[in-house]
Amino acid sequence: MNRESGSSNCVNGWIVAATVALVLGCVQEAWAWGPGSHVQFASEILSNLWVLPPAIAALLARHRRHFIYGNVATDTVLAKKMSRVKQVCHRWDTGFSLLHSAESDAGRAFAYGYLAHLAADTIAHNKFLPRQMAVSRSTVAFGHLYWEVRADAQVAPIHFQTLRRTLQRDYAEPEHLLEAHLRETLLSFRTNRFIFKRMNLLASEAAWRRSVLFWARLSRFGLDADTLASYHQASLGRIVDVLTCGEASSVLNEDPNGNWALAYARAQRKQLRQLSRARLPHMHIIAEAAAGHAIQNMPQWNGQRTHAS
Known about the structure:
The protein has 309 residues and is mostly helical. It has 14 helices and no strands. Helix content is 69%, strand content 0%.
């Protein structure tokens, strides 16, 4: 590659990064796990269908693409806190209503993907993001976006290729189901869907991921592969539990939005800033916060059926 071509790719990467950051920053909300992570989770499940009840496994095997789409389409609504029903897209009752309203196996596979996304988000919003915010002492708004993008940057390129192929297909029944359920949002469903797809396509660009990895190397806060993998394994464990137990799953006691956990992280950051300004010891609080969001005692994905405690 010549210097001019390399310079052009670098500029394109900056443009992609700036565009995605601007859109996400404007709505002041972001994903929990990014789209690449959710596609990775879906692919892991589809590669290990034997861990699921036979009927559900057979259904997902027949409609893999719809299941993957459900795993990313949960984030269709932007500025979800400004909807009449706050965070309507990230509610368990919405996910199960989609499942009960589906008229075909393809629609049901999509709904199972939607529920899988919510299950994974209980780990991202209640465990992973609060831990990383405590360690980096970042604000909730910035830390939310920063750490989910950092996590997605470690996802293998093949999953972003799957994401692009998935978004380039049509999904008649899933789109109808979403439009019927995601009403009275700040933006119209068509506008939400348009922006959602463009954002995800941008996030799947190799130039975007290269830009994120470049900034990650400059950061003084690391994200080692083992730490990230442990949270991914916990997310997969919860997905299996929800798909296996349905509305009887104990995972439904967890908030996919992580409202309480993120509010606590915000209050904790304020306390740390006050202690730091007063030059009082505070590193022990950071260590305690990180330990509090650890997942040693949580069910992990091990290729077997698992039930959340």
